[in-house]
Amino acid sequence: MDTARLRQLGLEVRGEGQSLSATLVLTEPLENPVGARKVERVTFHIQGERLVPVDPPEVVGLRSIALASVQGAREMEAEVADAFNEHLFHVQRRSAELRALGLSPEVDPVSLGLSTHLADHGLALTLVADRQGNFQVSGAKRDGHPLTVPPGHTFELSEFRERGALVGYLAALFGEHGPAEAARTKPGVAGKGVVRFSEVVQAFGEGAIVPPRSGLELLVLLEVEGRPYRFAAARVAGRTFRGLLAGAQGKVWAERFELDDFPGVVPLVADLLKVPAEAVKLIGSGESQE
Length: 290
Known about the structure:
There is one protein chain. The chain folds into two domains: 3-98, no CATH class; 159-282, no CATH class. By secondary structure, it is an alpha+beta fold. Strands 6, 7, 8, 9, 10 and 11 form a six-stranded antiparallel β-sheet that branches. A five-stranded antiparallel β-sheet has the order 1-2-3-4-5. It has a five-stranded antiparallel β-sheet with strand order 15-14-13-12-16. Strand 6 (106-107) and strand 7 (114-120) form a beta hairpin. The protein contains six helices and 16 strands. Helices cover 22% and strands 35% of the residues. The relative contact order is 0.08.
């Protein structure tokens, strides 16, 4: 990186090579509305042709700045302010969505990071949002025992209108305790708390409908070539669902889908794992299905 170019942009430059950093002194400090602090200087790590904010904590994780897109300190300051204000907007919006789900948003007074805690039936999760408002699980415990958190799985919080739908969706990342074991029993002997759709159909008939605005979550346990997998689907709205396929190593697939276009769990899993449909066994059915 040409340090002369950095100084030309009005940056204070320190270090060299991999430790090269640059600091921008703001003419209009950023206001931390939670910690009542002012951000007067922003330090960047130089990564190729981009400036990555690394200090103070309020700016860590904000979008990077392409050097080619700025001509001076004023433009850089405007880029930082825009990214910072966008983050504050996401914090406000996501906090409201968490409250709507019955969850308590927590905003760190220094970093302005947003997080929340979700506990249900022995599963305790810590959810954190990045600077763009995307959530992921940062910590998980079951019955007080830490669980390994699969890396890199983000989700769109606004797609979940019911707390239960969010719980059911995320629980598939870590497997089930209790209900999953019960689901291995013979059809019609579901076990405490577990309800099979075959039982629902038997009880209410195929003509029963699910009202358009009601929540709906499903969990399907599978085995493929001796390896366990979990498919979860949570209704977003109408006939739109958010699906997740997870294995022992974490997420395999996660996408929205329309019910009318969904090929079925077995065909989907077979296609994703590149195996024949006969290799996909639905646990609880006692047989492979196509």
